[in-house]
């Protein structure tokens, strides 16, 4: 018998079948269309959601309350593209969750659909620089998008010309109201397009010299007459990772392009990134700046209400749910993403608890859950040394030490390092690591004056102790600490 209790073919053997559900039974059940009710209970509750997708970050809303001013500002600048002129470059900035991406995408969709309506060649290309974060990748992605578009333009044009060639072969005067004066001219154009199609080579994701990628992109974009708006979301990540070469190259392209024009729309959470730009790039990119201020609680309430009307069944929310989600998110920094997450999570918790309505308590639970998820993620990704420092603080707290000072943390830290064979940093470095943990909101470190004994830091944990400890111990290195109790005891013995 194989170790999983089957006969090696995946079938349960006789003994197992007598006690467990055998595969034959399962198959029979399926044939009968009969189930064992695993999902029935879960489905039986009156569902709270009408359409949960509307609350997910991937959903692009059709309406963006409280962003009319910013949307109009963008539209006023970009309308030049519909007149065949080059719009000024735009830099959009504001804190996370203030609707920058959603508004910019909304405006681009409008721009593209209006350009189709009036048959003006205008295109928007969106790039998320958190993912596409080097000059090579940005240029390659753009080049390939335009090559793909050029291919389809060429295909359409070839279809039209081949049709024309057939008609002109039968009746030569069918060329009279076209741009061609003879069948030869049509043939010549067909040849030209076929050569273009053969010569267009897509850029591989690595391996070419950057100047070749750049010139391929340049040729692809200039192949047709058009105005192109390049949306660089999280533009600060691109600059941080690979400097300002991409922006420099893109911003000087217009003087060399013959047929097309490009305009850049940069989106960032962090305005400081412009300090790292070459002054020419900085002034070109920031021709127009649009600020997205944080939402206040009332605005967040409107945003949530619009979404909730579609997302939830009628009467599924008690009156205080939306105001509470809005208030929590406004405290953060006016983040609509956080507000929507809270509302969705509260709904999910209510659904899981088979409640009929979402209540205030679900929102509070959701707030704790989101906060805990954040803490777990931050702690999990800390460097090992910071994890050891944090573990030392946890051990002290668990042993009832209050107002922990840096010296105490350092002593325990040293012993932990010895135990797991890690390098021991200086007390000064450990103090820095404590300040970093403070900035991340994991510990709270306040400087207190001890009169003539100078000043010291008093440290306390700001996150739930058991969950944080569990995350730390899931790290394979820290997991080696079998029994940490003696270290803390030793502190009292010294
Ligand atoms: N005015 C609004 N109306 C409706 N939904 C909004 C509004 N503003 C933001 N949202 C929603 O909030 C979420 C976050 O918005 P968005 O991604 O546009 O923020 P952002 O400012 O680009 O944030 P980040 O800088 O973190 O990318 C999205 O789900 C978006 O649909």
Automatic annotation (TrEMBL):
The keyword Transferase does not apply. Residues 1-21 have a biased composition (Low complexity). Keywords: ATP-binding, Coiled coil, DNA replication, Nucleotide-binding. The keyword ATP-binding applies. Residues 390-472 form the Cdc6 C-terminal domain. Pfam families: AAA_16, Cdc6_lid, WHD_Cdc6. Residues 1-23 are annotated as: Disordered. ATP binds at residues 98-102, 295, 307. Residues 86-296 form the AAA+ ATPase domain. Residues 144-203 form a coiled coil. Belongs to the CDC6/cdc18 family. NCBIfam families: orc1/cdc6 family replication initiation protein (TIGR02928). Involved in regulation of DNA replication. This is ORC1-type DNA replication protein. It comes from Halogeometricum luteum.
